[in-house]
Design a protein that fits this description.
Helix 1 packs across helix 2 (31-59). The chain contains two helices and no strands. By secondary structure, the protein is mostly helical. The mean pLDDT is 83.
C-alpha cells in the first residue's frame, strides 16, 4: 500500500507541468528533458512549501 507522499508528484501533475515547459521552451526541447525538469520543479515546490507557510504565519501578528 502506498503513502500519499510516495505518490507525489503524480503522473498527471508532471505531465501538465512538462507540457507547460514545452509551451515555454518550444519544439526544440526533448520530451524527457521537459518531464524531468517538471518532476524536479514539483518536488522542489513541495519541499519549500512548509518553509513558506511557516514564514507567512510568523509574519502575521494579532492586532491589538
Amino acid at each position: 500500500m502506498s503513502h500519499a507522499e510516495d505518490d507525489f508528484p503524480t503522473h498527471d501533475q508532471i505531465e501538465t507541468r512538462a507540457y507547460e515547459l514545452y509551451l515555454v521552451r518550444g519544439e526544440g526541447t526533448s520530451a524527457i528533458e521537459n518531464w524531468l525538469a517538471a518532476e524536479d520543479q514539483l518536488k522542489q515546490e513541495r519541499a519549500s512549501a512548509p518553509l513558506r507557510a511557516k514564514a507567512t504565519s510568523a509574519g502575521q501578528r494579532n492586532p491589538g
